[in-house]
Amino acid sequence: MIGYRYVSDGSISQYLDEQKPYKWVRGFWKKQNYTAKENMIYDKVKLKEQMEKLECVKKENQTAPEDAYVAYKDSKFEIVPETEGNTLDFNGAYQALSEAVTDKKRTIDLNSCPAVYVKAAVMKDDPDLKNSLEECQNLIRTKIVYIFGEETVTLEGDEIRNWLIFDERGRLQKNEDELRQCVAEYVAKLAATHDTVNTEREFCTTSGRTVQVYSSVYGWKIDQEKEIETIMQEMIAGVQTNREPVYAMRANARGMNDIGNTYIEVDLSAQHLYYYQDGSIILESDIVSGDMQYAERQTPPGIFQLYYKKSPSVLKGKMLENGKYEYERPVTYWMPFNGGIGFHDASWQPYFGGNRFREGGGSHGCINLPADKAAELYNRIDESVPIVCFY
């Protein structure tokens, strides 16, 4: 079947040729031993052909090995060991069989030759697999308690585990992009519930009215990109912490009414300003706001904060084609809070309050104040104080 046969190396013929007829009598007194090699050969191609016919070599009789993997079982992550299978490494098996034939062995047990079987690529003691297990354990160990004033929101392992993907056998499918997407959706919901930027608030005015005031530049706003990155890092490390979210904008108080009890109220309909500190009025004044006869000069409602303050300053209108400004007006106190709109003294106003803003005496949008009130406001105001403007 494989052309297994003896091939003489010529040693026996040589021994026969060396014998002398007249020396036969010596054999009675002295024995002579001769050694001849068993020079067996076989056809390697035929051996391979015969091997290919073996049942254990046929693919339908082979089971592939399976890698070790991380799975979630009984409320914990663990490593499921590899399975060996019985898929032959044909070249390795052929080498073992060839050596057995060469060594004149009548049988061979392939199970005693581990190199002939295909091994799993990932073993249970693989360092990378152990690192993956530790990462997974850290994920469900993570606990982040978000602090929103008196309210707390907790993100912990049970919810995080629901963000992970497993196949039908329970093997963890590592996909950082999908995990990050789940984190992003969680942070977006957190922001939708707790952000106050771009929302309307009910504001109780000094006059007793309740008005709705919108703001896109004041309030609480979670920095979603930074918060996502922070969560990803904390999950990898298995952090347990109590903290605030990462904010892009902060307000003075918690809750949907985040203005607090220190603020400046600008009642544009009543043309009056109130400065509240810890719930008490510490300054009030009549004002003149933007001219209502021109849409572009009307003072916008909203909630704002001071940019900076400067004394003295020169207020300038838009630049004309001739390179000059529409107007240039020196003021002693300048406190901008909404683009080019701000508080300032206005010595040119004959009086404050009343209906000047409706009758052509209004400003270009700023809040005009008497000089003494502007000075007092300048000395008291800082960047943290909300400025609430409404009609």
TrEMBL record:
Signal peptide: none
MF-aspect GO terms: peptidoglycan L,D-transpeptidase activity; transferase activity
Domain L,D-TPase catalytic: 262-390
Gene Ontology biological process terms, A to Z: cell wall organization; peptidoglycan-protein cross-linking; regulation of cell shape
CC per GO annotation: extracellular region
InterPro entries recorded: LD-transpeptidase (IPR050979), LD_TPept-like_central_sf (IPR038054), LD_TPept_cat_dom (IPR005490), Transpep_catalytic_dom (IPR038063), YoaR-like_PG-bd (IPR022029)
Pathway in which this enzyme or protein is active: Cell wall biogenesis; peptidoglycan biosynthesis
One Pfam family linked to the record: YkuD
Annotated active site: 344 (proton donor/acceptor), 366 (nucleophile)
UniProt key word Cell wall biogenesis/degradation: yes
Keywords for the protein's UniProt record, in alphabetical order: Cell shape, Cell wall biogenesis/degradation, Peptidoglycan synthesis, Transferase
Annotated protein name in UniProt: L,D-TPase catalytic domain-containing protein
Species annotation: Blautia luti
